[in-house]
């Protein structure tokens, strides 16, 4: 492996990790509050990406200002996240809160299947690759290799900002503390006067928007096609399983671990690239079933 | 009582259909094979766990059949026996690791293992034929060299016998002490351990049994098809098994076959009309069942009294 390849793999891995981290943040936030692993989160990622690509193409077609390309990504996420988030929460998740875990998982899985076909019906099967934003930001030469500023700077910065805003929200604001209270114990929080239903809905919207944002920001640098949602849900689940459920900071490290190992696998052993998230997850869970950063929890008899 | 009636009706239906309409023989065999694998998923659902990767055991058995059939001149029945044992052994080994996990971790780890297997099979083209799969000659069956039609009829009865036997076996297992302990895993694992019963061991037994069922279904499927592709172990297949299990219901073993029959025939006739929206239909039906008839078709058959709802 040459130095250039090493550097390329590292940069690829870090930008992938930034996206992965945003999606995983949304997933783990929703899991914390509702106790449900939302498999349809992968669809939010995909649909966010498709919407962003459509906006990009629209801006190009109608000859609007190129300055709109970047804001369009965020607008796509802010439209898709709440829209689908509210639909899913009110229509499905809210109704299955007390049910059997198997059924909860299957309902979100069913939602995922439906949304997968919705993508196929709306956007067809051809891949989308709309990279105006990426070319807009240009390239920078780092130690002999040219790399896009978008992936190297914009993505990690957005991910970091999202993380710090979320952490500020959870630890410093009233609503954020209510979210944490519900994560800790829903029943007691409700008894203390927290409006669990409303807070759940808000959390779900935030989580869904993070998922859609991940997709929207991924759209300029990756090509969107059928199956990206399934791939993303597995990877982001691997991230939160490795970090331990509900560990936000740990998720950042786990995302880097998965992103980097996957991009290195692409350069070294392309056959294994798809497998790396599974393999790492298996290895970590073998040694530490609760995840790397989880604190031990009580058993309720 | 009605369960017994449905069983007899189902068996008669399977036999009559495949003799009156010979082109439906293969779908009937396939739905029996699927039913076996689904029964495996139902065993786990009774323990409150759902596996998103159980097609991997069918796939393992399928490839065991292909490799053996291509390397040695073995009898069909022997192929089924060996391939099922291989799948069972495989599930016993993986089970040692997997039974430590519950809930989403259990589901996702099964998915992870099945995806690893799927990728390995698709990538090592020289050994496994890649995504095109491997085909093999129709083997002798029970010592007889059979023509295509007679072979399929033979296979139908073998599959039917296997399905009946496994259905009864599963019911006996559910009613036995280990089977009851397995169900206790769902209600309260800690209390189970307080009784001095190892939850892991109980679950491992259940996992082994479910691997055996999926393997048996897979090996029959491989022999009926004469071709094995990695698709057999893809997560979509596993998802279908779970879907059928919910459709049929986990209250009784018959649910697996009932669900599998309906699924196979709806797909046989409707899939062509619904290309591109098949998953949408499956997803919608799944949600509908979960909200309207959470016990599945069996629940409708067995309707006795309302189960006590768990509330927060």
Describe the protein's architecture and organization:
The complex is a heterodimer of chains A (301) and B (312). Chain A has 301 residues and is mainly alpha-helical. Chain A has one domain (3-287): ABC transporter involved in vitamin B12 uptake, BtuC. Chain A is 72% helix and 3% strand. A two-stranded antiparallel ribbon of chain A has the order 1-2. In chain A, helix 3 packs antiparallel against helix 9 (196-218) and helix 6 (149-172) packs across helix 7. Chain A is globular. With 312 residues, chain B is an all-alpha fold. Chain B has one domain. Chain B is 74% helix and 1% strand. Chain B contains 14 helices and 2 strands. Chain B is globular. Chain B starts with a helix and ends in a 10-residue tail after the last helix. In chain B, 50% of the residues are buried. At the A-B interface, helix 4, helix 10 and helix 12 of A face helix 5, helix 11 and helix 13 of B.
Total helix count of chain A?
12
The run of helices and strands of chain B is: HHHHHHEHHHHEHHHH
Which percent band covers the strand fraction of chain A? under 5%
CATH topology descriptor of chain A: ABC transporter involved in vitamin B12 uptake, BtuC
Number of DSSP E strands of chain A: 2
Structural class of chain A: mainly alpha
CATH architecture of chain A: Orthogonal Bundle
The 3D shape of chain A can be described as globular
- Low-pLDDT residue spans of chain A: none
Q: Residue-averaged pLDDT of chain A, rounded?
A: 86
Strand order of the largest sheet of chain B: 1-2
Question: Which consecutive residue ranges of chain B, at least 5 long each, have pLDDT under 50?
Answer: none
- Report the end-to-end length of chain B measured between terminal Cα atoms: 35 Å
Strand order of the largest sheet of chain A: 1-2
Features:
heterodimer, A: 301 residues, mainly alpha, ABC transporter involved in vitamin B12 uptake, BtuC, 12 helices, globular, B: 312 residues, two-stranded antiparallel sheet
């Amino acid at each position: 492996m040459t130095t250039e390849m090493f550097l390329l793999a590292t940069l690829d891995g870090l930008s992938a990790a930034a996206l992965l981290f945003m999606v995983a943040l949304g997933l783990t936030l929703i899991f914390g509050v509702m106790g449900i692993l939302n498999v349809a989160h992968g669809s939010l990622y995909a649909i966010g990406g498709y919407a962003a690509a459509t906006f990009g193409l629209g801006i190009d077609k109608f000859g609007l200002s190129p300055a709109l390309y970047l804001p369009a990504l965020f607008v796509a996420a802010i439209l898709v996240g709440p829209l689908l988030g509210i639909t899913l929460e009110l229509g499905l998740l809210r109704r299955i809160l007390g049910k059997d875990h198997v059924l909860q998982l299957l309902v979100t899985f069913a939602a995922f299947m439906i949304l997968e076909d919705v993508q196929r019906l709306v956007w067809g099967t051809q891949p989308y690759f709309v990279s105006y934003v990426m070319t807009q930001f240009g390239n920078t030469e780092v130690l002999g290799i040219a790399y896009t500023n978008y992936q190297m700077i914009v993505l990690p910065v957005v991910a970091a900002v999202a993380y710090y805003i979320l952490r500020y929200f959870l630890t410093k604001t009233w609503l954020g503390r209510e979210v944490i209270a519900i994560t800790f114990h829903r029943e007691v929080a409700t008894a203390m006067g927290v409006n669990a239903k409303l807070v759940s809905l808000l959390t779900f919207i935030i989580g869904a928007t993070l998922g859609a944002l991940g997709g929207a920001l991924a759209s300029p640098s990756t090509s969107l096609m059928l199956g990206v949602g399934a791939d993303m849900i597995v990877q982001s689940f691997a991230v939160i399983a490795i970090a331990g459920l509900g560990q936000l900071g740990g998720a950042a490290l786990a995302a880097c671990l998965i992103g980097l190992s996957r991009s290195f696998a692409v350069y070294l052993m392309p056959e294994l690239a798809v497998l790396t998230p599974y393999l790492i997850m298996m290895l970590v869970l073998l040694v530490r079933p609760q995840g790397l950063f989880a604190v031990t929890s009580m058993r309720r008899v | 009582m009605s369960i017994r009636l449905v069983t007899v009706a189902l068996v008669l239906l399977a036999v009559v259909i495949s003799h009156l309409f010979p082109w439906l023989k293969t779908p009937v065999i396939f739905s029996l094979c699927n039913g076996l694998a689904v029964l495996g998923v139902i065993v786990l659902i009774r323990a409150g766990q759902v596996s998103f990767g159980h097609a991997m055991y069918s796939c393992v058995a399928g490839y065991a059949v292909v490799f053996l059939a291509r390397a040695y001149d073995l009898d069909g029945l022997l192929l089924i026996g060996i391939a099922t044992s291989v799948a069972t052994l495989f599930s016993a080994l993986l089970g040692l690791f997997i039974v430590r996990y519950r809930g989403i971790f259990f589901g996702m780890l099964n998915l992870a293992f099945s995806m690893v297997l799927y990728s390995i099979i698709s990538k090592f083209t020289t050994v496994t034929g890649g995504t095109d799969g491997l085909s093999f000659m129709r083997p002798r069956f029970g010592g007889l060299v059979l023509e295509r039609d007679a072979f399929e009829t033979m296979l139908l009865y073998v599959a039917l016998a296997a399905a009946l036997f496994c259905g009864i076996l599963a019911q006996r297992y559910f009613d036995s002490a280990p089977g009851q302990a397995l169900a206790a895993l769902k209600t309260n694992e800690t209390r189970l351990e307080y009784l001095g019963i190892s939850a892991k061991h109980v679950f491992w037994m259940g996992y082994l049994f479910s691997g055996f069922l999926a393997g048996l279904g897979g090996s029959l499927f491989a022999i009926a098809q004469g071709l094995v592709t990695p698709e057999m172990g893809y997560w979509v297949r596993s998802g279908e098994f779970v879907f059928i299990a919910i459709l049929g219901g986990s209250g009784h073993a018959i649910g697996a076959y009932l669900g599998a029959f309906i699924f196979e025939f709806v797909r046989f006739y409707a899939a062509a009309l619904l290309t591109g929206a098949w998953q949408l239909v499956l997803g919608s039906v799944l949600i509908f069942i979960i909200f309207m008839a959470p016990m599945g078709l069996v629940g409708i058959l067995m309707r006795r009294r309302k189960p006590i709802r768990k509330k927060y």
